[in-house]
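User: My instructor asked us to take a sequence, write out its structure as tokens, and then describe one feature of it. I'm not sure where to start. Here is the sequence I was given:
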Amino acid sequence: MQRVPVLDPRGVPVIGNDAHLPAVGAERLSAAALRQRFLAPPAWQVEFPGDGRLIDREPADASVLVPLVMRGGDLSVLLTQRTDHLHDHAGQISFPGGRAEPHDDDAIATALRETEEEVGLPRHHIEIIGQLPTYTTVTNFVVTPVVALIEPGFTVQPDPFEVAEVFEVPLAFLMNPTHHQRHAIDWSGGRREFYSMPWRPQPQAPDYFIWGATAAMLRNFYRFLSA
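Assistant: Let's start with the prediction itself. The structure tokens for your sequence are:
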């Protein structure tokens, strides 16, 4: 079934949040704990394999890097704000990544190449620790999230054509379901629901509205870590 496009996600009503679910404990959010979790993953169920199709086209493989920057004893997630003129997912907040190319050896190679091209993050700062299940976007990209620990000390160099801004969000914030808002919109073909995780770094600052595929993959990450 094709989905109704969401042109203004902030305008879609919030029907609740998931404050009833436990946050992932700090003991599971350290670099060492994450390495161990991917080495010996628990039995768990992915919550969002995808969101249906918005457009009809052949599926295309893609990868994103889920970059967990080690800031002292805490981890933060590096995200990008896409520029407004892009053809797919313009203006949205996303992980660095993109479409697989024929010369990429695998999903990890795609994620590393795209991350270097988009934000200039050097590969020697990146430690791959695992992958999450694929997520199929409304534009029919089959996306592999590649999770990595990032050694600090790098300087980002965003590609101005693709990336409007690079910023970081504390992993603990994103792994707390109190901050997972559920939205729903009804239309003639059915009902579409999605999550958002608005992040406001300062009380008077505008928020970063994380939603759609990025929020869904973060929600799957939450399920993986809380299992």
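For the description part of your assignment, you could build on this observation: The radius of gyration is 17 Å. Try explaining in your own words what that tells you about the chain.
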